[in-house]
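Tutorial handout. Part one gives the primary structure; part two gives the three-dimensional structure as tokens.
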Amino acid sequence: MLSGLRYGFRQLRLNPGFAALAIVTLALGIGANTALFSVVRIALLKPLPYKNPERLARVWMDNRRLNMREDWASYLNYQDYKRLGTSFESMAALTEPDVNVTSDGEPERVRGTYSEAALFDVLGVAPLQGRLFTKDEEAPGKGNVVLIGWRLWQRRFGGGDILGKQLDFDGRRFTVVGVMPASFAFPAAKSEFWAPLVVTDQQKQRVGYWIQMVARIKPGISHAQAQAEMDVVGKTIEQQYPDANAGYGVFVNPLENHVAGNVRTPLLVLFGAVGLVLLIACVNVAGLFLARAEARTREIVVRAALGASRGSLVRQLILEAFALALLAGAVGILASYAGIRGLLALAPTDLPRLDEIHIDGLVLVFAVVVTTGTAFLFGLWPAWRLSRVNLQEALREGGRGMSSSPAAARMRSALVVAQCALAILLLAGAALLLRSLASLRGMDAGFRTSGVLTMRVNASRTKYPQGPQLTQFYDQLLQRTRALPGVKGAAITSDLFLSDTPNSGTFTLEDRPPFPPAEQIEATGDLVSPGFFETMQVRLVHGRFLNATDGDPKAPTLLINETFANKYWPGQDPTGRRLIFGTPSPNRPWMTIVGVVGDMRRRGLHRGARLEVFRSTALAAGRNMQLLVVTDAPPLSLVPTVRQEVRALDPSGPITRISTVDAEIGESLAVRRFQAVLLALFAGLAVLLSAVGIFGLMTQVVVRRTGEIGLRMALGATRQDVLRMVIRQGVLLAAAGGIVGIVGAFGVARLLRSLLFGIGTADPVSYVGAGAVMAVAVLLACGLPAWRAAGVDPMVALRDE
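Part two.
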């Protein structure tokens, strides 16, 4: 076997042109597959760093009122889930606050977790240093201990001695009792500290939804069985407490699915696409290998005549294929390192476990398996063809038996058809995703997107402890910001973009009876400064915008969006109507609608608006607000001056999430952009490989038909006739592949349906565009061989023949 491999390497060295083309072709396919597998392995396949992670699940309240499967639960609902959910071995509650850290350096806003001590038992994790907190430390007055994450420890404290150190979180002093390992990032990658969840008597209610949950399922019970049981539990609680739980169920989501999030489908689509690229590469090299085997028919026949058995000849061809695959695999693995860097540069920031992606032993094993598989894919057909050749007849014909076979010609043509079909399929899929992305980018967000700087300002509790002081702080900040050079306008809002769990609640309309519990719907509520809608160019439909007069707590006012108005007052002007969140109470006045604003796509350009209500910061302001600054200058150039104004008013208040509105929208499309761009790159690679295959086939055709071409020209055929003849043959093969590919693309498009927006799966522009790109590639690939054929000297060709 080793001698056969050495002979194979020697053959490749004697044919450097063939070897280089085949190695580069295969290496591109192997490298692309290896790089993408390294991403898929970490994001989807590698077990999470917890004990028996397959038994872990996130448990959510299934909010049918907002069509939101992952919503927070009330504390008493959580207690019922834990008590009635016999499928769970253990369960823990948690919440994710953002807090101001003011110890040891510049004020910073960090994401953390308040949880029950049971969280660490549920997950099966231990600290890197120190200890975990205990259940006793969940009691009021005893919860001032904290575990910090490895990244926070390194970034803010330099990895030095930290145990026992006092930290200031939102004005509260916490003692560090432990440091968690770098691999621990729960419930999200941004989590940087964990402290005891202290629940007050006021929070132990059936309403008030703020609890997140994680559970460990008992051995032998599947996630589906746990979900079935919790469906019953959810219905039981809904029936017992209809006022608080009508329209709410329970959703048990495997932790692995929760972590993968919305990237699972895009990654699987990309992995399938890059597999097709490898298949095209193998088909391409199979054609090259077949042509080379045909060219060596005389050599093979002579060796057979000298006593070589058919089996030894077939084995030698397969070993040569393995030699080629080994070289291509080595080059492909080296190329995959660069490929990973490119993938990480394009990857969305919410790609799971992004910092863990690298080439490890398992990825190398995958690359070896792929390399071995490619050797079989492109090496078996030429070897099989050889096993069917009549060697005695080939010897009588001077070694032309294999190369002159009609079956061999048909097989070469079939390989080209297959390449074109696969390339068209990938091109059509890429075109659909790119058109969908363009459709999204062209959507009207309903508010100003260009030239807007955005940042979150977090007022410190020590300087601004109460609501009136917060309102005054943000009023002063707006005044100072609007006075800065280059600023055209500024506004404050609680959130321009809505999260998956926005601030929302049920409501009652004054002009109609209270909704039955089963029919209650939630509306999101946000705070905006007077002038917000004018600054952000939001359309006014009815009434007026909010202004400085809307701060009377005895006569509160609000705006609603167009979706809200159309649902409850279709075709009418609802200004003057009144509503209240929750149920009416003598202590809470009705809120009067003073205007209707156009819908804003705040949950992403691909999602419509919810029922939305806006109240003025003149009435009340939050502690953590979003500042929006409109400018004609590059928005980020204003960061130093705006930061200076914030610091002048609140030296210890962190400023976070500095960006632009355009960039935020771009980030919301990051997964779609990642998928569309990569699929387009893979499709481009497929077209290139297919063009190389067509070029190789047409070159062989011209060489084999040189005598025929000379005869045609001697009988009167012009150069243009020869050009048309050669190009027509290549175009007909490509057209056959194109038809097959388009039919296949229609089927594949159905799998992409959930990823498309604004276009259908039969979008004609996508398919015509894919066909046009392929047509150009085919014409270029056929052009050089056709030009060579047209330059044949008839006399020389006939004499050589």
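Part three, for discussion. The CA atoms of residues 471 and 621 lie 5 Å apart. Residues 65-246 form one domain.
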